[in-house]
Queue: 4 jobs
Job 1
Amino acid sequence: MTNIASASRPLNRSTYFDSHRTDASRGIRIVHVGLGAFSRAHQAWYTDVVDEAGEWGISAFTGRNATAADELAPQDGLFTLIERSAVGDSATIVSSIVEAVDGARLDRFVELLAATPTALVTLTVTEAGYRLTPTGEPNRDDAAVNRDIDWLSSALGHVLPDSFEGGPVTTLGRLVLGLHARRLAGSGPLAIVPCDNMPDNGPFVKSGVLALARLVNAETATWIADNVSFVSTSVDRITPKTTPADRETAATLTGFADRAPVVTEPFRDWVLSGEFPAGRPAWEKAGARFVDEIEPFERRKLWLLNGAHSLLAYAGRLRGHETVAAAIGDPMCLNWVNEYWDAACAHLGDGLDLDAYRAALLDRFENARIEHRLAQIGMEGVTKLRVRAAPIILAERAAGRTGEAPIRAIGAWVALVMAGADLPDAAAEGIAAALASAGDVLTELVRLIDPQLADDASVLAGIRSVATESLPTPA
Ligand SMILES: NC(=O)c1ccc[n+]([C@@H]2O[C@H](COP(=O)([O-])OP(=O)(O)OC[C@H]3O[C@@H](n4cnc5c(N)ncnc54)[C@H](O)[C@@H]3O)[C@@H](O)[C@H]2O)c1
Ligand SMILES: O=P(O)(O)OC[C@@H](O)[C@@H](O)[C@H](O)[C@H](O)CO
């Protein structure tokens, strides 16, 4: 294997474009927040493929810390995308990100949101990163949300503040600040495009942004309601966390030393619904679909792919597995996944080609060359199970059935939580309070996911039976 330090050239615009093609020097028209692996394998790739005229450069901001910007800035935003199929790897260098910026750089963020050419803000900050309640309100139990509300309430006026010192740290707080600046600059409408795995993500984020804006500046809230389009999306491309070995693979495939390559599967899908008042790249040329009614696609993906992922993340982990491919290779887990899919499919409606979708999903899960770790998928269980498992259980109960298959996912999560497994979660305080409850701990844990489930004695009995019969593995 190539040693990247000694045998590869540095990766940046001058080394890459000298040897490959002319740099289109794209102007920035897209601001992205949440510079993680997925956004690079998905939105950055789609934009790169279709932007032949070099009109749609991306300024990508990190979400929580500067690491991704520190890695990508010396590479001028370039990175290697390794497509990993069951039989081999291929690599492309993606150049649509023209600057990678620390999310704390509010000056740059505000400047770009206020700039007329900026037409889109795309987001991949994780489901929990929106810091919203299940009904789409800013979570006032979250200290960072309250801090941002205080700062924005005092800072947003008829002119922009002189300094952003102590300014917002949350994604929606930063967005409201940027949109306020855009209103003051008179730069016109734009679209916000959340690309996280949440149902109805456009209206959900709209509700959170508007609620936050109303708390801090009524005129900006009205301007947002009139000028900002919130697009709903269903996004799909399995993209695990990058490993040190992936850097070696990138160097071997391209000859460039890339500090931050991304590995992804060949499959990709993007369904979008909503208006783009300031234009957009022709993503459909790379296969994106623009639809009027997104819900069926969204639910199919969230319930079948993400639901099965969460089931494997907890029940598979209890069986001692570490990756999706290992878990789906276990006949017991495979059977649980099929039962889960049967339950979900009963509520997904017609015309979605569910048999073919399930077969393709199995192939994707079985791709053992994609090392998708169950520990990564298992993070943020409260928010994820709320949208991936709870709706199927409720639909099954309404149809007069027990909901045993999706109940298994929550039961396995409860077993792991009660065994003290390492499961990072933004709801950690709520989980700790539930574990310390003088009442029934299991009921309180389930209540965090969905109060309706905690009020159903049959569901609780099902979850209890899974949780107590499971043999928790060590954390
Ligand atoms: N990885 C995938 O296969 C995949 C596929 C489809 C959709 N997604 C969506 O993309 C999201 C990100 O996935 P990823 O693989 O890029 O993860 P990642 O860990 O590589 O990146 C996550 C990004 O979100 C930011 N972030 C995390 N928590 C945050 C918070 N509380 N506030 C603000 N920013 C925060 C991080 O700083 C980082 O920029 C997922 O949560 C999911 O909703 C991922
Ligand atoms: O990315 P998360 O953390 O929301 O969920 C983990 C996986 O289920 C998810 O990343 C899938 O791999 C992805 O949604 C496939 O498109």
Job 2
Amino acid sequence: MTESTKQQVVEIRTGLSHALGAAGHALADAEHEAGEATTRWERIRAAAQSRERKLAAARDERLRSIDEWHDTELGALAGAAAGAADRAAPGAAGEPWHSWEPTPLAKPAELRIGRLLLPAAPAPAAPAEPGRPWPWDEDATVSPPPESPEVPALVQLLDHGHVVVQGDRKLGDDVVAGLLLRALGTSVPGTVQVIGYDPEHLGGGLAGFAALAPPRVLTFVAPNALSQLLDDLVGHVRRINETVLAGEYSSLRELHAATKRRPEPWRVAVLLGAGELNRHERTQLERLLRTGAACGVHLIVHGLRVDPGPGIECVTAAPGNDARMSSGGDLLIRLDPGPPPAVLTATCRQIAEAVAAGPAPVALDSLLPDESEEWRESSANGLTAPLGDSPQGTRVQVTLSDYPPHALIAGPSGTGKTNLIYAWMGALAARYSPAELAFYLLDFKEGVSFARFAPGRRDQSWLPHVRLVGVNVNTDREFGLALLRFLGAELRRRADAAKQHEVTNLAELRAENPEGVWPRIVAVVDEFQVLLSGRDAVTTEAVDLLEDLARRGRSQGIHLILASQDISGIEALWGRPALVAQFTLRIALPRARRVLAEQNTAAESLPRYHAVVNSDSGATDANQIVRVPAAGDREQWSALQHRLWRRLPPGELPPRLFDGDVQPKLDSSPDFRALVAEDSPAPVALLGETIDVMSRSGRTVLRRAPGRNLAVLGTRVEEACAVLATAGRSLAAQFSRDGARFSIACFDPDARPAAEALHARIPDCGWYDASNVDWLLEDAAAESTAAWPADRPHFILLYAADALPGGKATLDHLRTVLRQGPERRLHVLGWWRGAGLLRDTLGGPGSRTDPIGAWVALDVHGSELAPFYPGTGAPNWYPRPWRALHFDRSVHRGAEVIIPYGAS
Ligand SMILES: Nc1ncnc2c1ncn2[C@@H]1O[C@H](COP(=O)(O)OP(=O)(O)OP(=O)(O)O)[C@@H](O)[C@H]1O
């Protein structure tokens, strides 16, 4: 081998070994890189796996919360639906049968027929990864989806629409029975009337309701009378639209919401399997379906094809969970079973009894305008207010104006006369303000029926229109007379004003004298016949005044409402045709006789709580029957009275309340409170409260003049002492301490405490008794005849003057004082226990009585008073407890009745 070859080999080997070395390096590098890449890949794969797991967990968490939310939301929705259903169907409208009982509601509710089957919360889908548990399986604290509450399936009937039942016949019957019972049980007995048409079973379909037939809450029509029934119902709809809604309201529901009145019953016609309808029947049925609900005419149809339409609920009866109703969309219903027979019959019997007992009272509210409309009316032309509804559902308005001006109301006891007066007053008082209307109220019946209009101990409010209330005046006919006198004076005042403005009636006077306050006056006298019952001066004057007021009051806005419970009251007037003729408005309560015209017997057949109102003197053609709302309820009345009372501006005075059973108090007498110590030359002795429209004290003036003495006559110690105490206290109040002298002498031990009490009240008053009265009278007699002028008056109060001791001498002194004292300002105020005894003091039967210028008689008959009374007659006086007759010859034409002031 050549060197060169060897050289070449070496070189090649070297080259190869280099190459090998380089390749080895490259391989190692490559392997290293490959290892790193593998590690990186494995890290990435691990990271990807971990991320995937996290994402899955997040997804699971999200899915779980979505499911939870879905379940709660569904539960809440179902709960809300159940709550709403409870509100829409309270009480007997929605209660399940096992706890059901009738509960009349204020307005119609939706009625339950079964239970809505709401979609349940969906069962959770299978977990995505088999074997991987759902979170709530892992965590025992997470609860399973909640159960849905029960949501009743409700249908609307009364005031809303009609119900058509299809499907299973037997189950459909149960739906009809259930609906009907719920409708009856949620309304006031008698306000839902059911008309059954059941040609197949001749009423058998409604057999459970049989108890409602006798009071005609349920009536059946014959199998061939469907046409007639539909015509009748259409007739009702037309009538109600024309006369009840009268264009003012679109439905009875609206009328009720606005006026709180429901003048028509709901009429529910139940048509069970009518077969095929002829054209006329079909047309009438469609009319009713369209227009009936607004007029309270509703149909429950079962077994008759009816096209769906607005206001028509279609119930498809089916067993189990397969029933449906048109307003429920796709939701299924489980129908309730029919009402249990025991519940059904008991309820029907209960309703029948309630209906047979008579209509339920209508509330006073139905007569009242909206609060925003109160006190808006003008009485310039008259006073008009509703008194209730007629049987046809129209409002009966009653007017007092120039014609008819006055009203006569009659009704035997308990028929609701007082209630009618309250209702009328309430309806008027809510419409007319006190500047438009004033009430004067007098009740001759025993009791306090009108007292509620004046402030009392329990309730300080009063009816703002009331100016005067007289209660318990049955023995104080004088109070009635006082009212008539007062109204007579007001009549003259108005007539004078009318003359001055050259007008003839109140409307014109108000137009001419807009700034004047000329309210119409309504004087109500309940049991007025008591006022006219005696054959005496009171009756004579009362009748004269009544005649005048009735004749002339009409144009001066003075209206009389006379009420009487028995025929004698009306007959008291009957003898005075001219007077009766003025009372053209006649109101008769059930069984009232003779108040309407002789031949008009409408009141005889009136149902309870109704009245005949007749504005044409009782002529039969003018009869209007009205159902009067209940106004007697104190709470309802108080609500109205308080509302009106709060409208009064502050400072308005309450009405005068005259209560014949209450003893007046001197300290409350305005006349007594007005007395001032001015040492008057004409001091006034107050004696008692007069029976008058204004609170006024009977009085006698003890001026310097003959006869100015006072005698109190009778045996009643307490009352005699009360009169003397009033006289003494009132006189003392008019003098300064030294301005007058007072002396009291008492000879009756029974009167001594009262005499001593008066003595204690009068400063520096002298006290005398049997032991020293002779000195007093001797001095007084000397003073009476003295020549020098008296510097101050001396009042001598003698208790039991007829028992004066001291024999003739003392008696002569007393006679001297009585005759001559007053001119020298010495006045005797004495109590004699009989009129004859006073006569004895004065000198016996033939003696003059003029030293006694004023007297107050207690239990002394009128005839005994004749000697002390001018003219030939005697005053008309029949003694009665705690009343006295007062006469003062210097001012009176006739005697007046007074009420002694009670101890204060
Ligand atoms: N329209 C009515 N609605 C409901 N209840 C009435 C109605 N009218 C009267 N009443 C009730 O009947 C009863 C007798 O009524 P009210 O006192 O008015 O009769 P009256 O004829 O005035 O009787 P009396 O003359 O004996 O007082 C009362 O309890 C009253 O609440």
Job 3
Amino acid sequence: MMPLVAIVGRPNVGKSTLFNRLVGRRKAIVDDMPGVTRDRNYETVTRFETPFILIDTGGFEPVSEDRLLQQMREQSQLAMEEADVIIFLMDGRAGLTPSDVEVVEMLRRVKKPVFFVVNKVDGEKLENEAADFYTLGVGTLHTISAEHNRGVIDLMEEVVAALPKSSTRLDDEDITRIAVVGRPNVGKSSLVNRLLGFERVVANPTPGTTRDSVDTLFACNKKRYLLIDTAGIRRKGKTTQKLEKYSVVDSLRSIERADVVLIVINAEEGVTEQDERIAGYAFEAGKACIFVVNKWDTLAKDNSTLGKFVDQIKTEFKYLSFAPIVFVSAKSGQRINRVMEEVERVMAQYSKRVSTSDLNRVFSEAVEKHHAPLSHGRRVKFYFATQVGTKPPTFVLFTNQPEGVHFSYERYLMNKFREAFDFTGSPLKIIFRGRERRE
Ligand SMILES: Nc1nc2c(ncn2[C@@H]2O[C@H](COP(=O)(O)OP(=O)(O)OP(=O)(O)O)[C@@H](O)[C@H]2O)c(=O)[nH]1
Ligand SMILES: Nc1nc2c(ncn2[C@@H]2O[C@H](COP(=O)(O)OP(=O)(O)OP(=O)(O)O)[C@@H](O)[C@H]2O)c(=O)[nH]1
């Protein structure tokens, strides 16, 4: 996998500007307003000798100086764990700030290459103004202007030289990839904003802007998550037929890359045909699914409202009967934290391994209790079970008649595994395989 470079720094120091310069695109969300880049964006940079993945860790609201510091600590922590090389960006115009000093202290202890960079040094005569920053005592200090492309290439040559030859970071088993899918207007972008923990001023992309697929990395409860194609979700003004059509294709693409799929349903509309198609696809692809019924605030509720909804979902999506259902309001924030709780729970199951001995104990008990129906007049015998994979947990069951196991029996075994090993919210996969008879 490609190595990872993270840009860290206070709001408004120019992280997005540098990010965009390196990625080679223009983005609407660079703004003078601090905190305006609220994404941690991932993008691949291929124009230097070694390709790498760049993360813009920007994006928090500086509520207060204390809160800012805390957020910067978290952001830097994430970058330190995640990245192979860190670019710590400071603002040459604003001068050295206390939070810079504190973060530098943190970064000093990191056993990874860290580049300390003063941005907004737009010309020679400003070099002197960066003098303050030398008091940090960090050794080499780079001065650049991201906006005017000054010193950026020199910096990047050193950054690229510091990259490890190969890295496995993004393969990390412990990043959970989440796709948020659903019909237009169900509240996907509102939900995404809630999950990321803030309201967002959505920039209107200028007409003709190419669509960027941007994933957003975030941390929740000490775990790391990647929200897939957040730019696509948040893209606004896609009201024309053509673009709506895109959104289904976009959803399918996001599902391909996901571990967990949040299927967002509008409480006002109930389940629609498009929801069924998308859910069917996610199920076929073996993804973990969670139903998120949004706009729960709009319903006049009585005792049976929730039950009816659950029934409808269970009926329409029989094959996904194990998938959790969460009722939320992205608008008010009601029960939004339940979404991430379910993601965490389901993901633990989705990536779980059970021991071969436990598996075989449960397997033989299940077979004892209910024998498999005859196939072509012959008994179906089972020998042995083994888990061959995760995401989804996949089991190979050895039998004398791999083609002869009835669908209902497969479901029976699956339910036994579900109960015994707490796979209550995860899809499972069973493969029947013939075994050479040893005589
Ligand atoms: N003069 C000057 N201005 C710059 C330079 N780089 C960025 N800026 C300006 O600084 C402001 C903030 O830039 P951003 O790239 O949005 O900053 P950021 O660090 O991503 O900010 P957050 O989104 O708040 O985290 C914008 O108005 C940029 O135009 C530079 O090299 N020189
Ligand atoms: N009452 C209520 N309105 C909501 C809720 N969530 C979203 N909305 C509103 O529903 C509309 C659509 O929300 P978006 O988040 O833009 O929906 P989306 O699924 O991203 O829409 P597309 O971009 O068209 O795919 C907006 O007017 C939101 O304010 C909710 O929980 N309750």
Job 4
Amino acid sequence: MQTLTIRRPDDWHVHLRDGDMLRAVAPFTARQFERAIVMPNLSPPVTTVAAASAYRERIIDAAGPGFTPLMTCYLTDEADPDELARGHGEGVWVAAKLYPANATTNSAHGVTDIRKLWPALERMQAIGMPLLVHGEVTDAQVDVFDREAVFIERTLAPLVRDFPALKVVLEHITTRQAAEFVRDAREGVGATITPQHVQLNRNALFAGGLRPHAYCLPVLKREEHRLAVRAAAVSGSPRFFLGTDSAPHVIGRKEQDCGCAGIFNAPYALESYAAVFEAEGALDRLEGFASEHGPRFYGLPLNAAQVTLERGETEVLPLIEAEGQALVPFHAGERLGWRLRAA
Ligand SMILES: NC(=O)N[C@@H](CC(=O)O)C(=O)O
Ligand SMILES: [Zn+2]
Ligand SMILES: [Zn+2]
């Protein structure tokens, strides 16, 4: 097969940031995807309908025509059910995002105790607004590699039980436990999967030295987990869908004493996923994962347009500079075997 034409995909988890960084990265996402679920972890976080509408306009300006940002509400301990319902009703918010306080980048205003969210979750369940979850406990006693599995046990499993009709997406899954939990859960539970978590295991963090550009949260896990998440991605199950978690930080913030978590994978995300599906003999399932499972889960229409991937070397630059931002992309300096044909 020399070309692969699929329905135009969407990215169900991306960080587009704001200001110069937004202008630098939004065109990469817009080139690859028709829609994207935009994470609200700006500083300050996007907690009001007004802030989300204004942010949406800035994204549309930066991305150019043909791209639709789908906005999310950042949940705090003070999350107001009426504001959530209003934003959802007005078509501004597609979903709301739960960051356990201090679990990841810009999550200081996140939720300190899930019980504080109950009124918000009740309303979201009633109106059919999905809950997106950064699934890691923040308990310093828990080993950083176990934080996702412990979160599932302590928080997610009870939540999925207590809110039996709430749509829940476990974002950027990294473990066998997460893949199995989502696979076996009740209806209305899904997961996004990033390109890095199906291609790298935690050895990548220490390959010949400390590798800040392989550092993201949840952190890469053992090989056993990579294989389980990879199997879920290519399984064809509608519960698993594409979410890059592209999370740009300028090079200086990655390469420092306390480097930021996040991998900037937007520029070649599709080429990267295609390599995985091909290696697994599952290229015929790429379209479901990239373009169908997500919209069906969210209850949104499938995109009508198509894109074509063609076989051919794509050279990933070691450094991408745009709008004064210097970013090291995922696969920096490598060659990928597929190329997204220009629209
Ligand atoms: N994934 C990351 O490592 N970082 C994300 C936050 C997140 O998605 O948890 C970021 O905003 O930089
Ligand atoms: Zn996260
Ligand atoms: Zn993220």
